[in-house]
Design goal:
It is a single chain. The chain is of the alpha/beta class and 361 residues long. The strands form three sheets. Strands 4-11-10-9-8-7-6-5 form an eight-stranded parallel beta sheet. Strand 6, helix 6 and strand 7 form a beta-alpha-beta unit. Bound molecules: ligand FNR. The site of ligand FNR has 24 residues, from helix 2. Belongs to the FMN-dependent alpha-hydroxy acid dehydrogenase family.
């Protein structure tokens, strides 16, 4: 029997073996040259840790809160579409795992399980991620459904006016997503004669490329829930987001699946945090694979991190249990990092515990 995975990268390898190539490529892949995809993880490797010694770390506490919700760790589940590509349990299994790990799951608009099914299957703290389609009434309906089903926040993704060019999906003729939340609301026919992936065709028919800052104000007007924006990479946009009245900012390049050659999110985190100036909490995602990565993100000012692909790899390998293992691995690694770096609580993690490439100039 194969030895069990010891870390998130080993889960990726097992998922590669477990999944049909089309689905593994869809999850792993990034846009075009996948330059940013590689940078998302490599940028973490260029940040070094500066531990403090002779600090009493006989007890280390990694628990925190986000928007008033208590979490076992500053590690959340990023929204990723189509969990049934990874495992038949789909988002229901992921949500159950998130509940057991006492963390927040951001459910993707493009989920394969219906929002109602996810809501009734567990008591996880859930946020709902929204794509705004050309047909705006769909956003209104889904936001209303999320609100009445007890979702606690809306995360609007703003880096996807069109779908990034993911060449593995084009080559594999990736099948269009089955977005169960859209049942009865929208049906899109894809044309097998057209070039590109079916996924790309689906996105170009649906996503609203005219979405702009005034629509964030509109979105806030249709819900009582806090609205967070996901996909901020510049200080200018961070300021605009605050002006628009958002309740949180997610520094993200969509796991390098949209525009290639953008900065890795960890490299722009610190300047965004400075621009935000504590007005709202800041999350970061992209390339987090180790507890040391979580520590680095916190040292550079993030309130918490989100994890995308590793959750799907855990799900692919072992369903709900696999997701629990992935989250617990990251938590254990974070706890050990804090002990070895002399930080008994999250508040003890400071900018002085890391050295970035810019610090070395
Ligand atoms: C995503 N991501 C994403 N983001 C979003 O806002 N809505 C979505 O439906 C999806 N779907 C999706 C599917 C898959 C397969 C992946 C890998 C990613 C992006 C996701 O929320 C997150 O930003 C990245 O996954 C973070 O990077 P890592 O952790 O995967 O490196």
């Amino acid at each position: 029997m194969e030895s069990p995975p010891l870390n998130l990268r080993e889960f990726e390898e097992l998922a590669r073996r477990a999944l049909p190539k089309m689905f593994f490529d869809y999850i792993r892949g990034g846009a075009e040259d996948e330059f940013t995809l590689r940078q998302n993880t490599e940028a973490f490797q260029r940040i070094s840790l500066i531990p403090r010694v002779l600090v009493d770390v006989s007890s280390v506490n990694i628990s925190t809160s986000f928007l008033g919700y208590d979490l076992s760790a500053p590690i959340m589940v990023a929204p990723t579409g189509q969990h049934k590509f990874a495992h038949p349990g789909g988002e229901v299994s992921t949500a159950r795992a998130a509940a057991k790990c006492k963390t927040i799951m951001v459910l993707s608009f493009s989920s394969s399980c219906k929002i109602e099914e996810v809501a009734s299957s567990c008591n996880a703290i859930r946020f709902f991620q929204l794509y705004v389609y050309k047909r705006r009434e769909i956003a209104v309906k889904l936001v209303n459904r999320a609100e009445s089903l007890g979702f606690k926040a809306i995360v609007v993704t703003v880096d996807t006016p069109r779908l990034g060019r993911r060449e593995a999906d084009i080559r594999n003729k990736m099948i269009p997503p089955k977005i169960s939340n859209l049942e009865g609301l929208l049906s899109i026919d894809v044309d097998s004669q057209k070039g590109g992936s079916y996924l790309e065709q689906f996105a170009s028919e649906t996503f609203d490329p005219s979405l702009s800052w005034k629509d964030i104000v509109w979105l806030k007007s249709i819900t009582k829930l806090p609205v967070l924006v996901k996909g901020i990479l510049s200080t200018e946009d961070a300021r605009k987001a605050i002006e628009a009245g958002v309740s949180g900012i997610i520094v993200s390049n969509h796991g390098a699946r949209q525009l290639d050659y953008v900065s890795p999110s960890i490299s722009v985190l610190e300047e965004v945090v400075k621009a935000v100036g504590g007005a709202v909490p800041v999350l970061v995602d992209g390339g987090i694979r180790r507890g040391t990565d979580v520590f680095k993100a916190l040292a550079l000012g993030a309130n918490a991190v989100m994890v995308g692909r590793p959750i799907l790899y855990g799900l692919a390998v072992e369903g709900e249990q696999g997701v629990i293992k992935v989250i617990e691995m990251l938590k254990n690694e974070l706890e050990l990092t804090m002990a070895l770096a002399g930080c008994p609580t999250l508040k003890d993690i400071t900018r002085k515990h890391v050295q970035t490439p810019a610090d070395r100039l």
